[in-house]
Amino acid sequence: MNQSQPNAATPDTFAPSMPFASMPGNLFAQGYAYAVDTWQRSVLFADVMRERGNQYQAHMQERVPNVLDFGTELIVDGRTLPRPVNYGLVRIVAPDDLKPDRDLAEGHDPGRLRPFVVVDPRAGHGPGIGGFKRDSEIGAALRAGHPCYFIGFLPDPVPGQTVEDVMHAEAAFLEKVIELHPNSPGKPAVIGNCQAGWQVLMTASMRPDLFGPIVVAGAPVSYWAGWRGKNPMRYSGGMLGGSWLTALTGDLGDGRFDGAWLVQNFENLNPANTLWTKQYNLYTSIDTEGPRYLGFEKYWGGHVFLNAGEMQYIVDNLFVGNRFVSGEIVTSEGVRLDLRNIRSPIVVFCSYGDNITPPPQALGWITDLYRDDADLLGHDQTIVYATHESIGHLGIFVSSSTGKKEHREFVSNIDLIDLLPSGLYEAHMGAKTDATPYAELTQGQYVLSISPRTIADVREIVQPDPESDRRFATAAYLSRVNLGLYRSFMQPWVRACTTPWTTDLSSKLHPLRVTYELWSDRNPFASSVAKAAESVKEARAPVAADNPFLQMQTAMSNAVIASFDLYRDMRDAAVEQIFETVYGAPWLQAFAGLPPRSDSEANAALTEPGDTEEREASIVAEHERLRHDMTEGGLLEASVRALLYVKRTHGEADERRFNLAREMLSKLSDQGILAFKHVVREQAALLRLDSEAAIDALPGLLASAPPDNIRTAARDIDKLSTVLTLDDHERADLARVLTIFESASKKKASRRAEPARQQVE
């Protein structure tokens, strides 16, 4: 009897893996269909690229090129300011299709909602990415009923414009917004994307009094930080010998730096996407992908310029020097730009899928500034961070998914964020389901919760590396040396040889611009492609998805991508190895004046800004003031203190509890929820200083309150505390404060009843 062997090969065994075995029809017919489809796709692809060129030409001819999807009204032209800049403040005109998510008639007067200001990055591209589509940061603010403003810029800088000038302009813009909204319950909330994020933080360090909550999305602040083997862009400055090349580029541009070079750096990070995937995706989906591709290319190809001095300042102080996080930057007016000056909550939104601003660069400033949690609390700063698992850099502020989720949640709960006591928190957005308790207290499809975190939690994400800091400090020193050599020996000759004609020619011949310039209706061959595309659309015959030649094409594309990825990985590994070898050399580090590795305290000073005597004295004085205020206040202060005491262990903030608190506090005052910001922060500080003394002082705070009001407050505290599940410790704390409130109400009632009994007697 014949039995088949377990591994014996039969004709059917290989049939599924052989493309021709299951091929329907004739091989020649399949090949012919594929050839026709390839020809048609090629014509349509060339036509879309022609439209891209036309779009680029028209876009660059606009007076104020931008990609905003909203109407605007100019409020302030930055060129008219005492320190003129090419920035401007516009009011976003809300379109009819963006209706607020909530009923503004029910206690949410749009005239009393805080304004939002969105600031776009000037990092090589033109403005508008923050309002690129309806589901965006601007769209989220408008949908929530907030007045919204946008800070954008022109392609060309004002001659002589500096980074400090831009900071003063942003301050002037915020002053104008505050003036236009005198009834706002709080200062404007400001959103800064990418480069605009650190620019906004600089302005807030200089003028903290102008800012409400600050949201920085995909913003690099700590430039030396990064994960080994994953973030090669941070090595660029060291590999080029420092910032002398920036000075050379600015000199060749006759005092202007071409932002296309910044975009080129982004393109180089992922050669597979730059050289193949982006175009191939358009080609394979040519029947549907054209509009989306053109929309993105309108932004990606809108290159702008910076003054050479601006770019030099940025590279020396940030990209290479990393001086912002160490508090070393001092303005021309003598103001030290210290992130610890900022009193408003800072919300950091970053992604693990972002290869331009990875989480270590977005969050590393926290571990650079603060040694531990006590250090952060001592500076009375509130920081909230949220991480995304996969989205890329532009997706952080462009993707519809983040627009509908993260940005909507941040916007709709901005008052909650503004009320948070000082500390470090992480924000989570969970999906709202039928099983979500108190779902009616939330807006949209998600529930925002904010949980306390520690410096150790952020350190686990950032993974600081003192040895890496030493290498970057060495590279920064060598950068200063090379820049000095260039300025002394080369710069005069370069400037003498540069003319407006050479500058204009070099700009037009930049590789990124050439691809847009060469193929448009200005090209005499383009008209024939446009006509052919019309004919192709009428006779379009897309190939079947199971065509074997199409499958081979897909396999070839995957091989091309894999090859580019292999090249990228080998290149990045080599760059990292060279950087570490060169700048890790002990003799070079000694030449740069770095302390010995054994001197841990001196090495820590490479990134830590330290504290001044004045700041330390102010912290001591603040503690003395808090001890004096421990027994100050009334029912409002007692209620807030009791609520914070119950949740002091876990301290999770939740939008459902916040909306209930809004209702409770409205019974105590008609000034609005944000009028209690000072009360919340004060009571939280008292509990941190001495929680037992703070709770022991509650009876004194309740002594002057009517008993009915005390009982009502106790019921609200009970309801608010149990919105989320309590652990045993929290239940015991809740019982303790409720007992205090009950005793106070009974004592007050008995005192009122005593005179009545005496009169009866």
From TrEMBL:
It holds the Pfam family DUF3141. InterPro entries: AB_hydrolase_fold, DUF3141, PHA/PHB_synthase. SUPFAM superfamilies: alpha/beta-Hydrolases. It comes from the Bacteria. Gene3D superfamilies: alpha/beta hydrolase. This is DUF3141 domain-containing protein.
